[in-house]
């Protein structure tokens, strides 16, 4: 039941993100940077679950649009720090507001008590460590 709902919600987000000039990965990057404004590219990639070479194009696009900045780590010239800009923060929040509006519309199909219970359950489940979700692997 979760997978079809997830796919539908992602499909609903796509036009919203396009209207804000963002890709899904761009939005994911901006969300990660808004919660912790400075990260290395490698730490950012690990945090969002992307291969670090995969996000280079996303970072290039976001940087080109003034939504983030990259600077060299003075302690390690091979590493780069990634920082969200004020414009990146503004754009992320505007996109999130529009996405939230649609989620609220969908959740309005639930009775208030059911909606509250559903959101509490999602909060609990979303904070589980990946190892808890995956469980023990069968060999």
From TrEMBL:
PROSITE patterns reported in the protein's UniProt record: HTH_MARR_2 (PS50995)
Residue span(s) of domain HTH marR-type: 1-127
Pfam families: MarR (PF01047)
Origin: domain of life: Bacteria
Signal peptide: none
Transmembrane parts of this sequence: none
SUPFAM superfamilies per record: Winged helix' DNA-binding domain (SSF46785)
InterPro entries: HTH_MarR-typ, MarR/SlyA-like, WH-like_DNA-bd_sf, WH_DNA-bd_sf
Name recorded for this polypeptide: MarR family transcriptional regulator
Organism, scientific name: Actinoallomurus oryzae
Taxonomic lineage of the native organism: Bacteria, Bacillati, Actinomycetota, Actinomycetes, Streptosporangiales
